[in-house]
Amino acid sequence: MEGFVVAVDRGRYTCVLDGTERVAAMVTAMRARELGRKSVVVGDRVALVGDTSGAPGALARIVRIAERSSVLRRTADDDETTAEGRLERVVVANADQLVIVSALADPPPRTGFIDRCLVAAYDADIEPLLCLTKADLAGPEAVLGYYAELELPYVLIRPDSELDALRALLAGRVSVMVGHSGVGKSTLVNRLVPEAARAVGTVSAIGRGRHTSTSAVALRLPRAPGGDGDGWIIDTPGVRSFGLAHVSADSLLHGFPDLVEGTVDCPANCPHTAEAPECGLDAWVAAGKADPRRLASYRRLLASRAGDGDARGEPEPRGEPPTLG
Ligand SMILES: Nc1nc2c(ncn2[C@@H]2O[C@H](COP(=O)(O)OP(=O)(O)OP(=O)(O)O)[C@@H](O)[C@H]2O)c(=O)[nH]1
Ligand SMILES: [Zn+2]
Q: What InterPro entries would the database entry show (predicted)?
């Protein structure tokens, strides 16, 4: 049987069998030995054998992982001092879209965090979507101004607003949601998927330890009338940010398309850092071709990657609190 992995918890994988609609059609599976050391993550499409009845206590086996259309990674920089802490981890497979949830106030938007997510999205070849919550508390002008050059798709969310625009962008796609604590991510997920609590309850049936809170869970979106195909939203409660040590300096620049053209006159192998004497980016910004805050943000990410900055708490512009995690 073919299935889709919706949750992972300590060696047990919750899968939804293809062609089934209800939460009750979830089966619990373990990895078959023939998978070797290949990891199975949320979003993976897998082949299952054994007891796929989904009955209590039934355990199926995952024997194959389909080729992934995208891989969203993070370097786990929670602990940079140990080899384990520097491990590159696959967060989610086969996502189409990265929904970056940021509040417009309370907590204030952190462009450093958004920039980091954009790099992760471009690196994974996943389309970014900026989801600006608490639009009832503050306007989006400052944030949108900062990204003016990027043509970044965005939606505004307020408590009383219809979610039609967002639903249309999520329909038929697999979207990963990331955001800091308090930005209104849970509120939004509950509005989008009213049965979310029940689905999470199903996950608890296979054992919910303290590790579970850090893993991703896929929730099926209600199908819009006339909508095509299943939409999935993958909540990532434990992923507060993306360590980017696995991203090359060149790939990092892809998260800053407004700066790319400014590097054409750089000397070969220019590191583009503030210390690089002939880096073309300084002139590019001085000529007004890009926002100086964008260059500063790019260089902060470069520095955090090189290990001479604090990847977990790079300073933010405009006196905002540092990005955590
Ligand atoms: N004014 C306003 N408040 C909101 C909005 N969305 C959520 N809130 C409030 O913001 C607070 C945080 O919302 P949550 O949904 O718990 O935020 P979260 O991002 O899930 O945070 P964690 O659960 O810590 O991950 C709650 O008190 C919500 O009621 C909004 O659009 N406008
Ligand atoms: Zn340069």
A: G_CP_dom, P-loop_NTPase, Ribosome_biogen_GTPase_RsgA, RsgA_GTPase_dom
